[in-house]
Design goal:
Layout: E1 5-9, H1 14-18, H2 21-30, E2 35-40, H3 45-51, E3 56-59, H4 65-78, E4 82-85, H5 90-98, E5 104-107, E6 123-125, H6 132-142, H7 158-170, E7 176-180, H8 192-206, E8 209-213, H9 219-227, E9 235-237, H10 241-249, E10 253-256, H11 260-267, E11 272-276, H12 281-284, E12 293-297, H13 308-316, H14 320-337
Parallel strand pairs: 1-2, 1-4, 2-3, 4-5, 5-6, 7-8, 7-10, 8-9, 10-11, 11-12
């Protein structure tokens, strides 16, 4: 029997791709010789490649007609056995359909975010698990995987690792805590002044410097963190995806909300303290078995626009001392394990 040929679709974003890796790893474990072409956004091409799970990584910009035409042409020519849409959006579900795939697997209407999308699938999976990584794994199982999730490793290039080590050396930093104050929604973010106070406490109590990671459009958050950090001067850092992996892996701990960099760091084995508000860690929390993770959560009702300020106020109730204690416990555990 010939090996299957899978087209898997997960366009973005960072945290969602990381939560898709275990499901693709299960698919790869079941079908080690299968062709797996992963269709993603150009921004995440290097991240997907770092997992070494896909035979090929195809990049498509869904805002470009030219890019879409090229991808559809490639999909038609490849003659895949099955397509699995881990994204669950109209734009992701339409690509396998337009590519002429006879078997298209996706979420049922009970799980999916955009109304009506399941009509584009031939196989609709009604999930029985809670965490998004496990739900992704249920799609893999429908495609023939023997399990929902499996372990995976991310590869970091020597050049990127050397560049990050040089950056740290230039700032006289050896051991550090990585802070991730940003997020796709600002309503998911712990207040930046709390991160600034945390920088002070980490330096005073544990003699640890902080590196503040930020992405495009988050410069104001970094400035707010630094302004409230007193004289401890946390180092701001923004780099490529490969550099982010290196600086996350070398940290003694990462502290942040429900954000892509935090999920990436956990996947790399970095201990984490996760601060949750409007999203549920049972569905969106760090997922990797055996990882050292502590989740601090303020219970909020389901987020809507009317409750936005209430949610932000709730996150502010998670105190600096509480986060510091969680980080201390995490580092103590690391010391005991080592």
């Amino acid at each position: 029997m010939p090996d299957p040929r899978f087209l898997v679709v997960r366009l973005g974003s960072l945290g969602d791709i990381v939560h898709t890796f275990p499901a693709i790893a299960a698919l790869r474990e079941t079908f080690p010789a299968a062709q797996i072409a992963w269709l993603t956004h150009p921004r995440w091409e290097s991240l997907v490649a770092a997992s070494n799970l896909a035979t090929e990584v195809w990049a498509a910009d869904t805002r470009s007609v030219k890019s879409l035409r090229e991808i559809i042409r490639r999909v038609r020519a490849a003659k895949f056995t099955k397509a699995i849409d881990y994204q669950g959006l109209w734009k992701s579900a339409a690509l396998p359909l337009l590519g002429g795939l006879a078997t298209r697997i996706g979420f049922s209407s009970e799980t999916i975010r955009e109304w009506g999308v399941p009509v584009l699938y031939t196989d609709r999976v009604r999930c029985v698990t809670t965490h998004i990584a496990e739900q992704n794994g249920e799609l893999s199982q429908r495609a023939g995987s023997t399990k929902t999730v499996a372990r995976f490793d991310l590869r970091i290039g020597r050049q990127e690792d050397d560049a990050v080590r040089q950056f740290l050396k230039e700032h006289a930093i050896e051991r550090y805590v990585l802070l991730s104050p940003g997020g796709g929604w600002r309503s998911k973010c712990w207040p930046p002044d709390r991160f600034g106070l945390l920088c002070q406490r980490l330096r005073d109590a544990l003699n640890l410097r902080c590196v503040v990671n930020y992405g495009p459009g988050e410069e104001d958050l970094v400035q707010a963190v630094r302004s409230s950090s007193g004289s401890v001067e946390p180092i701001a850092y923004s780099g490529s995806m490969e550099n982010l992996m290196a600086i996350a892996q070398n940290a003694v701990c990462i502290i942040g909300g429900d954000t892509g960099p935090l999920h990436l760091a956990v996947a790399l084995g970095t201990p984490s303290v996760s601060i949750y508000g409007p999203t549920d860690p049972k569905r969106n929390g760090p997922h990797f078995p055996g990882s050292r993770v502590q989740v601090l959560r303020h219970e909020t009702s389901r987020l809507n626009r009317a409750r936005l300020s209430e949610t932000e106020a709730g996150l502010a109730k998670i105190g600096v001392d509480e986060v510091l204690a969680a980080a201390f416990d995490m580092l103590q555990q690391e010391k005991n394990d080592g």
